[in-house]
Amino acid sequence: MSDDAKSLQSFPVASGAAFPSIGLGTWKIPHETLPGLIPTALEIGYRHLDCACDYGNEEAVGVGLKAALDKGICSRDDVWVTSKLWNTFHEPKHVRAACERSLRDLQLDELDLYLVHFPIALEYVSPDERYPPGWFFDDAKPELGMKPIEVPLAETWAAMEALKEAGLVKEIGVCNLNISLLRDLLTTCSIRPAVHQVEMHPYLTQPRLMRYCEAEKIRITAFSPFGASSYVPLNMAKAEESLFDDPVMQAIADRHGRTIGQVALRWGIQRETVVIPKTQTETHLRENFSIFDFELSEDDMQQIEGLNQHRRFNDPGEFCEAAFNTFFPIFD
Predict the structure, then answer these.
(1) Which positions are annotated as active-site residues?
(2) H or E element that contains 253
(3) Neighbouring residues of 1: CB distance < 8 A, sequence distance ≥ 6
(4) Model confidence, pTM
């Protein structure tokens, strides 16, 4: 492997820790698939697992990770594991218990990264009552919708800082913030966010956010790097919005003898963002990981940047009203 390829295998966060540049996103992967999929991914070379309470499958990830470690595929120190604080645990008194539940499910003593999943604070739902808590306050009465509460992000963040100080997590970060909210957080925090995880793909390139995070030394993780593909089955995107049908992407892929998915991921890591594609098959695991032996030209990169449509698929201002009877915009 060339020195250039090795340099793209991971990117440093502000502390100097090496953050693997490609991870396996576990959103929507069934419980029964993960115990076998995780060891396969780690055998292929993945060293980054992106998880969350809300995905409802952290126990299954934990089973797969333990199996891989017991088999000697890699050591715990080799694997970067991310989890996320759910909306119903934003009150500071609930933050540590939420983190400890994820640790228990994942069969870990410490997380490499813990993120605030959304800048949305909802009424607490006890794990004894329902876990993961989801968006509805009362599943038996979905017509009531979500139940927002007034908890400043700064208060939640202070409890996140306490997790790092207690040694439960190595790094802390955020997801789905706009620049103004991120800027505000930086004025009050004692420990700065190491990572900002946001939707990012060729139809949503977010150049201003990229520039701001680079200046503030905050590493970006790009979720949904393939754009619409995860959202069409949820009726949150139209089939004709698929990146895999884009003629510009296809032409670039053809020039390099690659797939459109590989081009999208390579574009992401050449921008020095961490990408977390999801798949349930070994074939696609291997395809997605095979992005370190070719390089997009500057012209390729500019053509892909030019596809930007500012198209956000994961937008609470849209899906919360459609699915949860509650209008809750967080983006302009």
Answers:
(1) 55
(2) helix 247-256
(3) 292, 293
(4) 0.97
